[in-house]
Amino acid sequence: MGKAHLTDIENLYRYYGLCPWEMCSMLSLLITIPFFSILLFNLPFLKFLRRAITAWAYVLFCAQIALALRLFSPEFLNSFTLRAHLFNFNIALDNFSLIVLLSSAIVLFVTLIIANYTIDSEKKRFNFINLLIFAQAGLNGLVLSRDMFGLYIFLEIVAVTSYILIVFDKDIKALSAAFKYFILSAVASVLMVASIALILLFSGDTQFSVIHKAISGQSPNLLIMFSVALFVCAAFVKAGIVPFHGWLPEVYSCSPAAVSVLLAGIISKTLGIYTLMRVVKDAFGFNSHLNNVLLFAGMISIVIGALAALVQKDFKKMLGFSSISQMGYIVLGLGNGTALGFAGAAFHIFNHAIFKSLLFVNSAAIESRTRTTHMQELGGLSKVMPVTGLTSVLGFVSAAGLPPLAGFWSKLLIVMALISSGHFIYAILAIVLSALTLAYLLSMQRMVFFGKLNERFLKIKEAEFGFSLAAIILAAIIVLAGLFYPFVLEKFILPIGSFGVFK
Amino acid sequence: MNLNIIILIILVIAALWAAMTRSLLRAAIGLAFMSIVLTVLMFRLNSGLAAVFELSVCAGLIPVLFVSTISLTHPLTKEEVLQHMKDRIRRFWYLPFIIVAVGIALSLIAVKLNIKLTAPEIQRDARMVLWNERPLYLAGQIIILLVGVFSVVILFKESGKDEH
Q1: How far is CA A283 from CA A211, A480, B121, in A?
Q2: How close B138 gets to chain A, by Cα (Å)?
Q3: For residue A233, what pLDDT band results from cuts at 50, 70 and 90?
Q4: Would you call A164 and B155 a contact, using CB atoms and an 8 Å cutoff?
Q5: In a domain, A99, yes or no
Q6: Searching chain A, which residue's CA lies closest to the CA of residue B134?
Q7: For position B106, what pLDDT does the model report?
Q8: Counting C-beta atoms within 10 Å of the first and last residue's C-beta, which end of chain B has fewer, N or C?
Q9: Mean pLDDT over all residues of chain B?
Q10: Which residues lie closer than 8 Å to A83 by C-beta, 6 or more apart?
Q11: How many CB pairs under 8 A join A and B?
């Protein structure tokens, strides 16, 4: 590679956020390595390899975390020499994709730790890890794809994997929840394909850049509005935004412990919210109608999710409704339609992935010791489970948006963006409803961790090492991202809004 | 009335029959019939490649899979079937009306607003596009197939072993 060429690459990366063509071959490895490793581990004559799958999955997820962190600095491209075009995939990487790649790798890593402690049989664990690696391939493809149909295919990979993960224990409640999810998700898929078909009619291609040109080149007509509306509805179903949220709390509360960490942490967020944000930013473009719909849907989600979370008796169900409410904040940031709002929404995706995974890890730890998630049966658990108690306080403080933890900064960005674009009512409501989040999380803390310890649980000990390790890792990320916010915002978050439609 | 409209009406009737019929076997056959009607429609709309796929996979392979799975299940007794049917009619009697009403409403809107959906001009060969220009789709579909195979193994083969 010549020096002049290198400078071009660096400029491309720095100013457009998109990776140059040379990197695409490297990027395709993010999809192909997980895929080929599954093939390898399942070959009948390589059965002796199967024991190594846990270690290999750790390597894969850690490598993705390292890659995502490393790629945030443009200097990486200077030492980058891999040029071979492995596959002719239409994929690209920008800072927004990197945030989601990083969050998904962290959540997959934590899920793997929990799975190793909650799944006893070696054979079942092998199957579970295979599904996790499938999910990784699907998520990476979804995040990197720059094409509507490619996006849809990878979305389906993750969706199918998640149906199987939900029913992994073949529990009857989980089967019924997964069936509900499957049916609603199928409806969303039909809406999405219909939308893609209509888009193909007026743009002639499914690539984001072509669609963006086609939409901005003509005045908004019924066909465009209809196809955009179909896509937005589909993404809302996948994300569980009100009024399409019926499946979400049941699925989260009935899934096996490790799966609810994965679903709440990254899957529903990537399938619904990331897809919506990516397509709105790169293909549809912002306009006042769409922004108003997004702002309104986001606000309704925040209200309904928080009110419903207040009255829940089950720990996991409450976290599910809390997810609906937090998802509303992300949609609110997106609906703002400005660079700052978008960056805030992306940061909230990361934060929500971390603190919701943490709270679900805590719930898994409690469930592993007490065999219940019913909050009225619990109480005073922080006396016997100090690590779980302490980390859950950090998780809930971040979720409620209290300074100085990471959740505060992302909510602050969203509120600031709302104020600067003149949406004062939404900004005030967002702040007031944050107090509601605090209310339901405080009541959860009081019922589960503080107060009088139930006599039944006098003899229980702190959860096994894996649960504590996962919780400590996630809590450390929340604390570090919160305390070093100037660095995080400058290096990771604000560049997200500095390219593309916001330029 | 255009011939395509008649085919569309047959398509809707076939789909409703597949969804409403009381036996699983008839539902599978109804699905196959619907796919055949759809194939004819696709062929008439100059989409030969899609028609061939629809005919071979959706009308051929999938019903075979369904029928072979249904042959492994225990059929319900006549009374159970009737009871099931009654329950379903009581719960979902309004669904066909809604579907027909939505269909009529959408058609009226389309006629009133004079929407013309012209097919995009495609000069390129679909095979070239899929294999040479869009290998990402193929990779994704291969992964979906693998996930499907894997799920069947996890959900059914394992549970079969548990029972023995």
Answers
A1: 5, 34, 21
A2: 9
A3: very high
A4: yes
A5: no
A6: A89
A7: 83
A8: C
A9: 82
A10: A1, A22, A25
A11: 88
Mean pLDDT score, B65-74:
82
Q: Are A72 and A492 in contact (CB under 8 A)?
A: yes
Residue A341 CA to residue A416 CA, distance in Å, equals 8
Q: How many domains does chain A have?
A: 1
> Which residues from A are below 8 Å from B151, CB to CB?
160, 163-164
Rounded Cα gap, residues A99 and A354, in angstroms: 12
ipTM of the complex: 0.83
Q: Count CB-CB contacts under 10 A for residue A192.
A: 25
Label residue B130 exposed, middle or buried (CB < 10 Å: 0-12, 13-18, 19+). middle
What residues in A contact B118, CB-CB < 8 Å? Answer: 201
- The DSSP secondary structure of A42-96, one letter per residue, reads T-GGGGGGGGGHHHHHHHHHHHHHHHHHHHTSGGGGGG-----------B---HH
Residue range B145-159, pLDDT digits in tens:
899 888 888 887 765
Domain-located, residue A420: yes
Domain B1-75+84-119 in this protein, CATH class:
mainly alpha
SS3 A105: helix
Residues making up chain B, counted from first to last: 164
Does residue A312 fall inside a structural domain? yes
Q: Where are the domains of chain B?
A: 1-75+84-119, 123-164
Closest alpha carbon within chain B to A125: B154
Residues of A in contact with B141 (CB under 8 A): 153
Domain residue limits at A429: 286-503
B136–A157 C-beta distance less than 8 A: no
CB of B111 less than 8 A from some CB of A: no
pLDDT of residue A14: 53
